[in-house]
Amino acid sequence: MSAGIDTMTQATSVSKAVAAPVARRRKRKGFGPKLAIFAFLAMSAAFFCVPLYVIIVTAFKSMDEIRLGNIFSLPQTWTVEGWHYAMFEACSGTVCTGLSMGFFNSLYILAPSLILSIAIALVTGYAMAVWKVRWANGLLFTMFVCAFVPFQVIMFPLIKIASTLGVFGSVWGVALVHAALALPILTLIFTNYFRGLPSDLMSAAMIDSGSFWVILREVILPMSGNILIVVLIMQVTGIWNDFLVGATFGGATGQPMTVMLNNMSSTTTSGAVYNVIMAGALLTAAPPLLIYFLLGKLFVQGITAGALKG
């Protein structure tokens, strides 16, 4: 009996002795890919973070300090003069009110664009997904094609339509164009999401009420929180950061913040004022970043819950 136990003990010791070098080799082999992944992520983060760091520190420097050329150094004297000048005093063409007018123009553009695009796409996607509208698949295919048509291709017809409606050169013209451009992709997203809802629940709701609007209000909307957050962040980011639509349809009074920033950076009489330009860029980028920081967790939850599935 004791001999058998000794034999088992020796076998266990031998197996452990053999397994130990193998485990060490596996650890060494596993460390290399991890190091490579870490190095790649570090370089990717530096690629985005270093320019952002330069922009931030430059915005808080005076022009005398910027002329020294130490772009990576922290400001010796922190100042917000560039921020104030960019927001309230900088000239965009012949208008010297800073980015404040562009900020309010962007808000006036954003609100109706969000309401129109999301409301119309929500109802359209709900109708095609739940109520089985005739020719729904053909309409979806047409929208799929339209979603990838470059804006430059349809720009002239949109200008003619906006001129006919009398909104060309105003914030309403920019808002209507944004809503029209967003409808195809938003309708596809809503339709795809609603088709994934439980069919038994939809059938029961139709039997219980049979009303198009009652089902939308009492069944569909309470179940659409995830996709609404996803679409909201997508639209806010796209509309606020847009330049081409605002420059084309905004005219002299309906220019959004991005267009005024471009005009501000090119309107100068004594060379580029870098602290003002950097501060203006940060002020322009701040609203969508704030929205994402506030709702970013819900955005990720919406994607993982199936808001963009399929």
Verbal overview:
- The protein is mainly α and 310 residues long.
- It folds into two domains: 2-54; 103-258 and 277-304, MetI-like (MetI-like fold, Orthogonal Bundle), CATH 1.10.3720.
- 76% of the residues lie in helices and 0% in strands.
- It has 13 helices and no strands.
- α7 packs antiparallel against α10 and α10 (225-240) packs antiparallel against α13.
- It is globular, with a radius of gyration of 29 Å.
- The model is unreliable at 1-5 (pLDDT under 50).
- In CATH, what is the homologous superfamily of the largest domain? MetI-like
Number of helices: 13
Q: State the major sheet.
A: none
**What's the alpha carbon Rg, rounded to whole Å?**
29 Å
CATH fold description of the largest domain: MetI-like fold
**Tertiary shape:** globular
Report how far apart the termini are.
65 Å
Low-pLDDT runs of 5+ residues are 1-5
Can you give the mean pLDDT? 82
Question: Can you name the CATH architecture of the largest domain?
Answer: Orthogonal Bundle
The helix-strand sequence is: HHHHHHHHHHHHH
Number of strands: 0
User: What structural class do helix, strand and pairing data support?
Assistant: mainly alpha
Outline the fold blueprint.
Blueprint: H1 2-59, H2 63-66, H3 81-88, H4 100-130, H5 136-147, H6 151-165, H7 171-195, H8 199-208, H9 212-220, H10 225-240, H11 244-249, H12 257-266, H13 274-304
Helix pairs in contact: 1-13, 3-13, 4-7, 4-10, 4-12, 5-7, 7-10, 10-13, 12-13
